[in-house]
Amino acid sequence: MCRLLAYLGDDILLSRLVLEPEHSLEKQAWQPKELREVKLNADGFGFAWYNNSKKNSQTPALYRQVLPIWNDPNLYSLANTLSQPLWLAMVRSATPGLGVSLENTQPFCHQQWSFVHNGYILDFSGETQHKLRDLLTNEFLYLIKGNTDSEYIFALLMQHLATEPPHKALSSCMQTLHKIVNNKRSLLNILLSDGINIYATCHAINGLSPTLYYTNSSDEFGEGNQLLVSEKLNHEPHWQSIEEHKIVSIHPDKSIGIIDL
Predict the structure, then answer these.
(1) Is residue 176 in some structural domain?
(2) pTM of the predicted model, to two decimals?
(3) Is residue 242 part of a domain?
(4) Which candidate, 25, 174, 42, places its Cα nearest to that of 87?
């Protein structure tokens, strides 16, 4: 289980999202409110952004760290320097057996896509892992550098995105996972971006979906600026809970779409 955050709107310092709110992502690492199965997210963290200074460049930039977010001596300097209109960020709680390493730390990226996953596939190592490997072509199998269920889901989603638009690819990915995991509990909240839009799933198989909230009218972050988060960053009343089994998309024109999975 992890805690996730996505932002789309006006340029904002990363510190405004991960350090400064009363229930910031940093605080969620050591004092989460809505984790059902673990107590800490101390197994690394990361964030992705898009450096649009190069014309037509939509290749994501990454910062990943295996230290707990509160122990990284570089974070405060970076977070108070980097300002962007789109952010994906996460703090990690490693699933037992899926070790702490840079290769296992999200976000994962391929071409224009950046990706983070909150959840797990129960008892992933073994049969389920082998079934997923068998579905991946070499091009996408080579994306996998670690051993997490999250990275296999990422590779499967990238394979679908090669031939399908985002909403369809997310739906197809979830349908494939339904067939593979059988009766195993699988928690499948995903944030995905192409550098322009952000897409999300709130979904689970044989279990309750992790929490996911949305706002576009926060006093703290500005009217029209959109956030998708695992836990509310403050006590403002504007946060909306996303229902289970939904695909959410947010766009630069400040619109939101929600469809059934």
Answers:
(1) no
(2) 0.95
(3) yes
(4) 25
Q: Quick one: tokens of 37? A: 């199965």
Instruction: Provide the 3-class DSSP secondary structure of residue 48.
Output: strand
Which secondary structure element, helix H or strand E, spans residue 87, and what is its range? strand 83-92
2, 109, 173, 202: the active-site residue: 2
Cis peptide before 166, with omega less than 30 degrees from 0?
no
Asked, for residue 167, whether it belongs to a domain, the answer is no
> What is the count of structural domains for the chain?
1
Nearest to 47 by CA among 38, 34, 60, 31: 60
Nearest-angstrom CA–CA distance, 108 and 52: 19
**Domain region containing 241:** 2-117+185-260
Within a domain: 180: no
Strand order in the sheet with 222-229: 60-65, 45-50, 83-92, 2-13, 222-229, 213-218, 240-241
Neighbours of 167 (CB within 10 A): 14
Tell me the residue ranges of DSSP E strands in 93-132.
Answer: 108-110, 113-121
In this structure, what CATH number is given to the domain that contains residue 202?
A: 3.60.20.10
Burial class (CB in 10 A: 0-12, 13-18, 19+), 3: buried
Q: Is 2 a catalytic residue?
A: yes
From first to last of the 261 residues of the chain, give the pLDDT tens digit: 799 999 999 999 999 999 999 999 999 999 999 987 778 888 899 999 998 655 445 889 999 999 999 999 999 999 999 999 999 999 998 887 778 899 999 999 999 999 999 999 999 988 999 999 999 999 999 999 999 999 999 999 999 999 999 999 999 999 999 999 988 999 999 999 999 999 999 999 999 999 999 999 999 999 999 999 999 999 999 999 999 999 999 999 999 999 999
